[in-house]
Automatic annotation (TrEMBL):
NCBIfam families: PRK09289.1, PRK13020.1, ribE
PROSITE patterns (alphabetical): LUMAZINE_BIND
Known EC number: 2.5.1.9
Record's protein name: Riboflavin synthase
Lumazine-binding repeats mapped onto the chain: 1-97, 98-194
Limits of the Lumazine-binding domain: 1-97, 98-194
Entry keywords, A to Z: Repeat
UniProt source species: Marinobacter daepoensis
Entry-linked Pfam families: Lum_binding
Length: 205
């Protein structure tokens, strides 16, 4: 289980690709690998992966073909920065919202606005997932728990403060970039329950 509060950025150092499997070697800040054990769960750009090996502050993760297909991990290259969060422990403060680390879909950054002292990112996601997007609702983008701003059909935006830009990869975001999306589980449950009762939300306009 994760909270959506990004603990920092790490750097991809190596990607080893084999049929149906990719192994990522990721360099973490020294202080963030204390107490890591083989088998531990770490969210990499929001995707829950398992530590398979450790060499100093380099952690190894395997991602199967299905994970690579459903997420943006398949596009990672050596030198890329990623957002990370180690799994939450009982008693940890939940500063964002509860996340599973299971990615539902991907979205594309379609516009970046830079008003004074903040940045607004506009995203477009597949129509099938737009039904779960509501103004002021929760969403996880590349593992970060964020509040949705405006919604327009299959597009929505989020507003980011300087601290979020500093502490995550969003500071280097570019239009056309794909990101991982995890829909808020409570929102999904409510929408799907209402749909089964015949109160389905209209398709995105």
């Amino acid at each position: 289980m994760f909270t959506g509060i990004i603990q920092g950025m790490a750097k991809v150092r190596e990607v080893v690709s084999e049929p149906g499997l990719s192994t990522f070697v990721i360099e973490f800040p020294e202080e963030q690998v204390q107490g890591v054990t083989i088998g531990a769960s770490v969210a990499i750009n929001g995707t829950c992966l398992t530590v398979t090996r450790q060499q100093g502050n380099h952690l190894y993760f395997d991602a199967m073909q299905e994970t690579l297909r459903l997420t943006t991990l398949g596009t990672l290259q050596p030198g890329d920065d990623i957002n990370f969060e180690r799994a939450a422990r009982i008693g940890d403060e939940i500063g964002g919202h509860l996340l599973s680390g299971h990615i539902h879909t991907t979205a594309t950054i379609v516009e970046i606005l830079r008003p004074e002292n903040n940045v607004t990112l506009w995203f477009e996601l597949p129509d099938a997932w737009a039904r779960y997007i509501f103004p002021k609702g929760y969403i996880a983008i590349n593992g970060a728990s964020l509040t949705i701003g405006e919604v327009a059909g299959t597009r929505f935006n989020v507003h980011l403060i300087p601290e979020t830009l500093r502490a995550t990869t969003f500071g280097n975001a570019v239009a056309g970039q794909s990101v991982n999306i995890e829909i808020d589980s409570q929102t999904q449950t409510i929408v799907d329950t209402l749909a089964r009762l015949g109160y389905d939300r209209p398709a995105a306009l």
